[in-house]
Amino acid sequence: MANTDPIHVGVLFSRAGITSRVEYSQWLGTDFAIHEINAAGGIDGRELVATHLDPECLPQNYRSMAEKLVQDERIRVIFGCYMSSTRKAVMPVVEKWQRLLMYPTLYEGFEYSPNIIYTGAAPNQNNAQLADYMTRHFGRRVYLVGSDYIYPYESNRIMSDFILERPGGAKVAERYVRLDANERDFSSIVRDIKDKQPDFIFSTVVGRGTRLLYEAYADAGLDPARMPIASLTTCEAEVSEMAPHAATGHITAAPYFQTVDSALNRQCLERFRTLYGDVIEPNMCWEAAYFQVHLFAQAMQRSGSDDLERLLPHLLGSELDAPQGRVRIDPASHHTRLYPRIGRVGEDGRFVILAESAVGVDADPYLVHHATNEWSIRNVALGDVDA
What we know:
- The protein is of the alpha/beta class.
- It has 12 helices and 16 strands.
- It has an 8-stranded mixed beta sheet with strand order 7-6-8-9-10-14-15-16, with helices on both faces. A 5-stranded parallel beta sheet has the order 2-1-3-4-5, sandwiched between helices. A 3-stranded antiparallel beta sheet has the order 11-12-13, with helices on one face.
- Strand 6, helix 5 (150-164) and strand 7 form a beta-alpha-beta unit.
- The model is unreliable at 380-387 (pLDDT under 50).
């Protein structure tokens, strides 16, 4: 007799806390994929059921809740985590108990775990392209601003390497703010930016502080056409929290924007909005959370089990047509082939894509290769973009 028992998976995304806005979008991307899978008959007739816990953006909660999912709920696969500090809190749990974490967030690289699948961008899939684009179009003097935890420190180190290896490259300043930073923290940084006049600002500020940085920049009368904020972490979720004038003209590198021009992406967005309305803005982290569930379901259908030893051989090397393009899990690194893009926020709050890769770029999490100038086959002149 065929097994019709539900398949239980764990989900760790926050509904409260510093980065809850983007994490809520990741939960909805996950829930959306689960809905689609179940509506299509489940996995070999078995319903996919999520146990969603809210860690409130606190690393210690991620660890204790991962232990609860693994030990009490007997769950074998967890989808979750946004900040690198939370991923690192969960890593020992899945490694100890031979479980799997699917992690849908850009991160700093320089990591491998046999128990993690990384579906967000590694530095050679966003940081390298952003450094290349900004130095070509704006200049080589960068001011670094980040939140005070591991991802911004490492991303700023990598951006510094990309900038300083170029003739005339200079790091004008490097500043960090606490995760619960307030307006005063950013006003002092913006005054320093105005005084030092870099060519661009590289932001790895996350969560609620993102809005405060961009609004302080706008209030100071700085000009994004001449000296923009360039970011890896500012996506549609954060832009939706800002006053429109604060976001317009600033730049982000990401594998996915809502404005990706494909029928598959447009259809996916339409289905999502039919189910969920306008409660969140789809973004790069939402998209990775969405497609990684479909990758899991595809692998489990082939393996017949969510046990790690049986599931992983079917997950590694697997491919899927995602909204950003056709993605693939690299069997050697556990990272994902993605499509680097550069977007600039228009007056409507949507990203205009300035440059993009026509083919997927495999992750190089240890930055063995530093090439940054061969990734794009389509560049749109800045003068052609309404800002």
